[in-house]
């Protein structure tokens, strides 16, 4: 088979005020076609008001083997969460 | 980590219901099994457009035509979600399509049966999509993340497919005597092939044990088939139609419907390529692939040219 269209990752904002979220991927010859294909494939039922596409080769993902090194340090820092602090009941909403 | 430890770690994740994601370590056999299963599933969605596409231009009303168009377009989308999921495992979409065209990869045998009249569009939506949904709902909980997510998306869209099919059957079974006959005839022809969609008996399906251990599958073929029969028989009753099985009856003790043994010779015959439409389906897919080749090439050439122009313009601006 001849050279195929590159792969693109599709991100969709489902409504104004929300973040774009990864929806899946598609093939397209260029960015314009990627938007059109993403529209046809991922928003047939009003799933979106805005689409981002980015060629998959431009995405750098963290290595699952590095997950501990990357995310472990955050685990023991419970003082970063509001529930760590004991305040008297009189302080109602804080 | 050593291979053995990796494998134990992998299985522990599966046992703990943690999804496996594309970059995670996985056994080769898990990857291969998934690529095979997901791509066959994708091919089924794509080939599945053919029997229904056959009736788009002859739908009995504009309403029905719009609905059928939307449904068939959904199936194309399902195929594409699934090819994407297979690609996250390192498969090349072009290769997968090629394997389908040269017969190395299968698609669901149900699509090798012809759609003879409009009632078949009703029966397909009701029974074929209904059977597919039974399987797909289970697969929303499959252990591979991208496959599970594709299934969630698909299941959301599928229930319209089944409902529109059932609505056609309802209209026909409440229509003229002739229309009711058509609906019954269609049910007669699609019933057994629909039950075959769940695949061979549990003991006879070669991959099932490992697929359970890896939680790719969570219910056996026979369990799913029974679930489908139990759900569908009352629906047939509501239509005033009967399934072509003299042995079908409610078994109060089991709490399930009993039904006759399946004609597995027919099943294997169709799987091996001798169904009524196997050659026609592959020929149609091959033609679509060949006829579209110049479009794919031209789009790529255009994109490359446009990019060159942009680079050129940027260089001129910078100079
Ligand atoms: Fe589908
Ligand atoms: Fe469907």
Overall description:
The complex is a heterodimer of chains A (94) and B (319). Chain A is α+β, with helices and mostly antiparallel strands and 94 residues long. Helices cover 22% and strands 22% of the residues of chain A. Chain A is built from 2 helices and 3 strands; from the N terminus they run ββαβα. In chain A, a hairpin with a 6-residue loop joins β1 and β2. The longest helix of chain A has 12 residues. Chain B has 319 residues and is mainly α. In chain B, 69% of the residues lie in helices and 2% in strands. Chain B contains 12 helices and 2 strands. The longest helix of chain B has 41 residues. Chain B is globular, with a radius of gyration of 22 Å. Chain B starts with a helix and ends with a helix. The relative contact order of chain B is 0.10. Classes of the chains: A alpha+beta (94), B mainly alpha (319). At the A-B interface, β2 and α1 of A face α4, α5, α7 and α12 of B. The site of one fe (ii) ion has 5 residues of chain B, from α4 and α7.
Bound molecules: fe (ii) ion
Give the SSE string of chain A: EEHEH
In terms of structural class, how would the helical and strand content of chain A be classed?
alpha+beta
Strand order of the largest sheet of chain B: 1-2
State the assembly state of the protein chains. heterodimer
Question: What is the overall shape of chain B?
Answer: globular
Strand content of chain B: under 5%
Instruction: Write the H/E string of chain B, N to C.
Output: HHHHHHHHHHEEHH
Count every helix of chain A, treating DSSP H or I runs of 4 or more residues as helices: 2
Architecture (CATH level 2) name of chain A? Roll
Q: How many helices of chain B?
A: 12
Strand content of chain A: 15-25%
Largest sheet report of chain A: 3 strands, antiparallel
Gyration radius of chain A, in Å: 21 Å
CATH class of chain A: Alpha Beta
Catalogue the unreliable spans of chain B.
Answer: none
Task: Name the CATH superfamily assignment of chain A.
Answer: Phenylacetic acid degradation B
Task: Let me know the average pLDDT of chain B.
Answer: 95
Radius of gyration of chain B: 22 Å
Tell me the helix content of chain B.
55-70%
Tell me roughly what share of residues is in helical segments of chain A.
10-25%
């Amino acid at each position: 088979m001849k050279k195929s269209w590159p792969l693109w990752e599709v991100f969709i904002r489902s409504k104004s005020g929300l973040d774009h979220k990864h929806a899946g991927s598609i093939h397209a010859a260029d960015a314009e076609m990627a938007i059109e294909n993403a529209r046809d494939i991922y928003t047939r039922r009003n799933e979106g008001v805005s689409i981002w596409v980015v060629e998959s080769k431009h995405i750098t993902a963290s290595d699952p083997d590095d997950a501990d090194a990357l995310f472990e340090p955050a685990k023991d820092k419970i003082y970063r969460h509001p529930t760590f602090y004991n305040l008297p009941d009189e302080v109602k909403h804080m | 980590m050593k291979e053995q430890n990796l494998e134990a770690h992998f299985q522990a994740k599966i046992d703990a219901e943690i999804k496996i994601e594309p970059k995670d370590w996985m056994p080769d056999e898990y990857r291969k099994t998934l690529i095979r299963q997901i791509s066959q599933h994708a091919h089924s969605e794509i080939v599945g457009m053919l029997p229904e596409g056959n009736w788009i231009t002859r739908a009995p009303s504009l309403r029905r035509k719009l609905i059928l168009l939307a449904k068939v377009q959904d199936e194309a989308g399902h195929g594409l979600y699934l090819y994407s999921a297979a690609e996250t495992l390192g498969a090349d979409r072009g290769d997968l399509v090629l394997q389908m065209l040269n017969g190395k990869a299968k698609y669901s045998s149900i699509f090798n049966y012809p759609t003879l009249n409009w009632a078949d569009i009703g029966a397909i939506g009701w029974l074929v999509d209904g059977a597919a949904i039974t399987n797909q709902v289970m697969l929303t909980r499959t252990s591979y993340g991208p496959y599970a997510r594709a299934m969630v998306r698909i299941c959301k869209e599928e229930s319209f497919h089944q409902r529109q099919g059932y609505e056609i059957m309802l209209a026909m079974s409440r229509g003229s005597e002739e229309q009711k006959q058509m609906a019954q005839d269609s049910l007669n022809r699609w019933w057994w092939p629909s039950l075959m969609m769940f695949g061979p008996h549990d003991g006879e399906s070669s991959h099932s044990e490992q697929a359970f251990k890896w939680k790719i599958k969570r219910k056996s073929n026979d369990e799913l088939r029974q679930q489908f029969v139990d759900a569908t028989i009352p629906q047939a009753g509501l239509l005033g139609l009967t399934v072509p099985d003299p042995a079908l009856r409610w078994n109060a003790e089991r709490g399930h419907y009993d039904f006759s043994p399946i004609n597995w010779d027919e099943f294997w015959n169709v799987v091996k390529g001798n169904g009524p439409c196997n050659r026609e389906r592959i020929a149609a897919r091959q033609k679509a692939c060949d006829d579209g080749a110049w479009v794919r090439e031209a789009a790529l050439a255009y994109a490359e040219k446009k990019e060159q122009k942009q680079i050129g313009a940027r260089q001129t601006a910078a100079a």
